Each structure stands twice: as C-alpha cells, then as structure tokens.
Amino acid sequence: MVRRMIHACGDVDLVRLACFRHDAVVAGVQALRQGTPLVTDVRMVASGLNKTILENLHVTVHCFIDDPQVEQQARKEGRTRSACAMEKAIATVKRAVYVVGNAPTALIALCDAVHRGEVQPPLVVAAPVGFVAVEESKEQAFALDVPLIGVRGRKGGSGIAAATVNALLLMAMEEAAR
C-alpha cells in the first residue's frame, strides 16, 4: 500500500509518514468486500478510484462538494464547502469508508461527527494536504478510536488518497476471488 502511495506522488518520505491504526487494512478490506459505500471530500479522489473494481464489489462513491445545497449552506454560514459537504455525507450516507485527500476542514467535520457519536466509520483515510489546519486535522483523526490510514504532517493529496483506496480495493477483490 505504501508503495502505491509513493508511486502516486513520487515522495519516498511516505515510508516514514504513512500511519496505520486499529487494524485499518483488515477493516478497510472487510468493509469494501461488504459493499460499504465510499465518501470522498473532493471529486479528484473519486476520479482516481478503480471503477471496474468498485462495480465488481458493488461499492458506490459519494461526493457532495458540488451539491447546490452544500454551496448555498457554505455561503450562508461562511464555512468551507468541504466541511458542509462532509456533514451532508454523514447525514445522508452515514456508514461509509470516509476518504479525505484534500480538505482539512472536511476531516475536522468528520472527526467532530465521530466525537458526537453521529457516525462510526469502518475506516477513515486521512490524507489532506497543505498548510492551513492540515496537521491539526490529522492529529484529531489519529486520535479517533476508529481504523485509520493516514499521512502525517503536511503531505498528502487526492492521488495518495485514491492510491490508498485502490490498494484496498485490489486486496478486497483478491480476497473475494479466493
């Protein structure tokens, strides 16, 4: 999995930055084999996922970043679309594998919902990238009592998040074939 992450971004630092908590790989493979939906913070993550394996496993992908209600809510409340989109995903999809490859505010919204008991994801992929609130959002995620695959520090991104999920999808498909 880490090799796929490195290949997605060309950064060998991921060997030491990749983080796996609470049997995340086993939990992720199991969830995907059961057809658990995926929620992504941005379309770039969703676009990078292996459509053939998603179909074979009957896994749907949800992303609410472009939802007109989300855009309206974000504008009205002066918040990021990413946070509002994640809140809508939690309310709409509920149980899902949550994948954040871009927006720390989406990850913070997810962490808050887990703390409030609104959702208990079978897996969280925490790989937002950048400078503003990125490290803080990841530290909140790493403290959750849920299976998690993440990238420590400021590094991450949609490609890394998609590569992580694709590795899990391949493992789930291989297990299903046995």
Mean residue pLDDT = 95
Secondary-structure element order, as H and E? HHEHEHHEHHEHEHEH
Strand content: 5-15%
The end-to-end distance, rounded to whole angstroms, is 20 Å
Given helix and strand content, the structural type is alpha/beta
Number of strands: 6
* Biggest sheet layout: 6 strands, mixed
Evaluate the radius of gyration.
Answer: 15 Å
Helix coverage percent: 40-55%
What is the count of DSSP helices, taking H or I runs of 4+ residues? Answer: 10
Q: pLDDT below 50 for ≥5 consecutive residues: which ranges?
A: none
Strand ordering within the main sheet: 1-6-5-4-2-3
* C-alpha geometry: globular
Describe the structure.
The structure is a single chain. The chain is α/β, with parallel strands linked by helices. It contains 10 helices and 6 strands; from the N terminus they run H-H-E-H-E-H-H-E-H-H-E-H-E-H-E-H. Strands 1-6-5-4-2-3 form a 6-stranded mixed sheet, sandwiched between helices. Helix 3 (24-33) packs across helix 10 and helix 7 runs parallel beside helix 8 (104-115). The chain is globular and about 50 Å long. The relative contact order is 0.22. The mean pLDDT is 95.
Write the layout of secondary structure elements.
Blueprint: H1 2-9, H2 14-17, E1 18-21, H3 24-33, E2 38-40, H4 43-47, H5 51-57, E3 61-62, H6 68-77, H7 81-92, E4 97-100, H8 104-115, E5 123-126, H9 134-142, E6 148-151, H10 158-177
Parallel strand pairs: 2-3, 2-4, 4-5, 5-6
Antiparallel strand pairs: 1-6
